[in-house]
Each structure stands twice: as C-alpha cells, then as structure tokens.
Design brief:
By secondary structure, the chain is of the alpha+beta class. The protein has helices at 2-7, 9-39, 121-128, 187-200, and strands at residues 43-48, 56-61, 67-78, 81-86, 108-110, 115-120, 138-149, 155-166, 172-176, 182-184. The strands form 2 sheets. Strands 3, 4, 5, 7, 8, 9 and 10 form a 7-stranded antiparallel sheet that branches. A 3-stranded antiparallel sheet has the order 1-2-6. It is elongated and about 90 Å long.
C-alpha cells in the first residue's frame, strides 16, 4: 500500500490539488450567488389601513440597500380599455398643507426596511387624469413602482395587480390577484421602464 502511494504520489498530489481547486470554485460560486441575492432590491407593494377606495397603497423596501423612488405609475383597466398615468406627485395637496416641498411628491430615497404611503384609490384616480375614471368602471388596478438602486445607477421596479369587484349595493372591494409583488429585474423589464421614463422627456 505504502509502496503504491509512493509510486503514484505525484499523480495523487495533482488529483488532490485539482479536487481542492474544484471545491474552492464551487464555494466561491455559492458565495457570489448568495451575495448577489442579498444585494438585489426587493420592493413590496401592499394595500391596507382601510377598506374599499379608502384603503392606502404602501411601498416598502425589503432589500438590504436603499433605493430611490423615481416614479409611481398606475394602470387602470376598464371595459373601454387600459390607460396608464404617472401618479408620483401629490397633486391633491395644496401649498398650505405642505411643511416642505418634499411632501408634494412620492419621489425620493427609501431606506432598507422603510415604507411609504402613495395614496388611496380615490387619490390615485384624482392624480391620474383631469377627468378621473369613475370607480364603478374599474376592472383592475395595477401599481408600478420605478426605482434606482443605490449600489449602481440601474433602474429596477415592482408591480402588483388588484381586481376591483362590487357587491349588490355597489360598494367596491379591492383584492390582489397574486400573493406576492412582481419584481422587475430582467434586462427587458428594466429597458421597458427606461423607455417609459424617456417617453416623458419627449
């Protein structure tokens, strides 16, 4: 046995070196995947603190890095079709209600673990058009949040769709169509977000 080991020691050393290198490569690969997963943004959209059109939409940052909210879009589906509008600015607030200019917009930094209210359905409908769509015409409402990451300037986003239904008395109920928020991280998705922003620049 010892004679065989002595005879093949060079080959065994090469094999052990290769095996050690393979283990380290696998370890580094797992570490990099875990590191990238921890640093990727996670934006959550939720609805609560009320019922019907008085419930508020909240945007939370559950990623480890802060993000900068660039825009908030609302997509409204009715029997007549779908419209999309930017609802970032709080147009329902007048100058006398503001303590500082930053309160007039939902645009701004959002630290890890923090959240903000972007408004109720009534408020978002008011912001979306000069002649708001009646709540009774709505079929679905989709909230889209566009953000820039802190680590490097790169647009990301999140969206969540809600179905609007009405009881026999016409009172609306708003329920999410999915349990989780859709994260927009793919290259195609981020390119679409960038095109939306560029279109606003004319």
């Amino acid at each position: 046995m010892f004679e065989w080991l002595s005879t093949h020691s060079d080959a065994l050393q090469v094999m052990l070196s290769g095996l050690t290198a393979l283990v380290w490569i696998i370890y580094l690969q797992v570490f990099l995947i875990s590191f990238r997963r921890q640093r990727r943004p996670e934006i959550i959209i939720s609805l609560g603190a009320g019922a019907g059109t008085k419930a508020s939409w909240f945007v939370a940052n559950l990623g480890l890095e802060p993000v900068f909210i660039v825009d908030v879009l609302v997509r409204l589906e009715t029997e007549q079709g779908t419209t999309e509008a930017v609802v970032t600015d709080r147009t329902e607030m007048n100058d006398r209600e503001l303590n500082n200019p930053g309160e007039a917009t939902n645009q701004g930094p959002l630290a890890s673990g923090n959240f903000m209210s972007i408004g109720t359905l009534d408020i978002l409908l008011h912001r979306s058009a000069s002649q708001p769509i009646p709540v009774s015409d709505l079929k679905t409402v989709t909230i889209v949040v566009v953000a820039a990451t802190a680590a490097r300037w790169s647009l990301v986003g999140a969206s969540r769709q809600y179905r609007v239904s009405f009881d026999v008395e016409g009172a609306p109920t708003i329920l999410a169509t999915k349990i989780d928020t859709d994260q927009i991280r793919s290259r195609a998705g981020r390119r679409a977000l960038l095109q939306k922003l560029e279109s606003r620049l004319g």
